[in-house]
Amino acid sequence: MCIVRHMIKLPAGALMLAPMVELSNRPLRTLMEQWGGCDRYHTEMCSASAWLANTAYEKWFLDTQPAPEKTVVQFYATKVDDIPRAAARLRDEKAAEGAPLAGIDINFGCAAPHIERSGGGVYWMKQADASAELVAKTRQAIPELALSAKLRLGYEDSPQDLLAYCKLLADAGLDYLTLHPRLKNEKFRRQSRWSNVRFLAENLPIPVIGNGDIRSPEDYRKAMQNWQPAGIMLGREAIRRPWLFALIRGKEQNPDFSLHIDMEACALQMINLIRQHLPTVFHISRARRFFLYFSENLSFGHHLCFKIQNALSLSAMEDHLRSYFREVPAEKIRHER
Ligand SMILES: Cc1cc2nc3c(=O)[nH]c(=O)nc-3n(C[C@H](O)[C@H](O)[C@H](O)COP(=O)(O)O)c2cc1C
Q1: Which ligand 1 atom sits nearest the alpha carbon of residue 236?
Q2: CA angle at residue 240 from 300 to 20, to 5 degrees?
Q3: What is the 327 CA–ligand 1 centroid distance (Å)?
Q4: Among 29, 143, 164, 282, which one has the highest count of C-beta atoms within 10 angstroms of its own C-beta?
């Protein structure tokens, strides 16, 4: 079965990279692509109003390389008209660059206090009619592109209210939506409530993607089986193990599938990609953020991570990585089974 809407073609059981601030960027996608990547990448969220005002750094969040045909840009906003305007302008700019945009994702889920307080992210879930208007206007602005939204459970644990809200969004023109089934205030400590994904998948006229706490091919398999989403979006674990999409796909074909990862080369390559593809002002913060997760693969990763968090340049980080693998050579090659 294939979902075909506008420019988007998603295989059943589609695998997607989650939008993550300071992480879901061109260096990460480039790293992932060497193992084949995933079916759909979402960029980190970008403020539609800031980009429309031509602020200095937003354009870096909108870089869709190296796979523009499967990269969706996520916008957030506090007003109805900003995302439709930003989406149309971005579509035109990307077409002129010869790298047409795959789609736009609307952020209805961010619970970061400064975003919510200003009326963005999950706050939209308090304003159903305005949310539907935002979707309808964006749909009108980019009729030929995929349009999706990502949301949480909202403020209360009420599947019926959630469904009513999502139906409004679907009727307003979404092609698919992603549910991260946690309430606004729920942190990662609490497990995602995946039964809500199944409830939406069974009752909405559009594909529903599930997201939250998927860490292995086995988790993926069970979530597809138990909760029947159209696909699955991975966040943190895909940062820890950027080859995880390949492992999931490989295991689907053959349970004995395995990968050998050169951990040192992978880490050094990420630093190089950050150097090549991001502005200098982002270098340290983006590398620190990536290695917060990646270091968790290593037995003494907390020591390495501490050094990287305190390093003041990318080359100092490279030195720490090289000396780690000199001291712990057994961890240089990782066998993923
Ligand atoms: C560091 C970080 C940044 C995030 N930034 C965004 C974002 O920009 N937009 C968004 O919709 N969700 C964002 N999220 C939420 C993720 O997309 C995802 O819903 C969440 O991490 C759960 O998936 P996981 O358990 O696979 O990590 C972020 C999460 C993390 C950890």
Answers
A1: 27
A2: 135
A3: 33
A4: 29
The superfamily CATH assigns to domain 2-253 is Aldolase class I (3.20.20.70)
303, two tokens: 């020591």
Which of 16, 17, 21, 42 to mutate to test ligand 1, by most ligand atoms within 8 A of the CB atom?
21
| Cβ count near 18 (within 10 Å) | 24
What is the spatial distance between Cα 179 and Cα 209, in angstroms, rounded to a whole number?
A: 6
By the 8 A CB rule, do 49 and 77 touch? yes
Residue 148 CA to residue 313 CA, distance in Å, equals 37
Q: Which residue in 89, 158, 75 sits closest to 124, CA to CA? A: 75
Please give the pLDDT value at position 300. Answer: 97
Please list the rounded mean pLDDT of every run of 10 residues in the chain (337 residues): 53 97 98 98 97 93 97 98 98 96 97 95 97 98 97 96 98 98 92 96 98 98 98 98 98 96 98 98 98 98 98 98 98 96
Pick from 44, 98, 102: nearest CA to 71: 102
3-state secondary structure of 51: helix
Cβ(232) – ligand 1 distance below 6 Å:
no
How far apart CA 255 and CA 264 sit, in angstroms, is 27
Centre of ligand 1 from the C-alpha of residue 210, in Å: 13
| H-helix segments, 173-312 | 195-203, 217-227, 236-240, 244-253, 263-277, 280-294, 301-310
Residue at 41: amino acid letter? Y
Instruction: Please work out whether the CB of residue 180 comes within 6 Å of at least one atom of ligand 1.
Output: yes
Which residue's alpha carbon is at the smallest distance from atom 2 of ligand 1?
Answer: 20
Task: Quote the CA–CA distance of 25 and 60 in Å, as a whole number.
Answer: 8
pTM for this predicted structure: 0.96
Q: Tell me which residue has its CA closest to atom 5 in ligand 1.
A: 20
Length of the chain: 337
> CA quadruple 147, 200, 10, 246: dihedral positive or negative?
positive
Query: Which amino acid residue places its CA nearest to atom 18 of ligand 1?
Result: 235
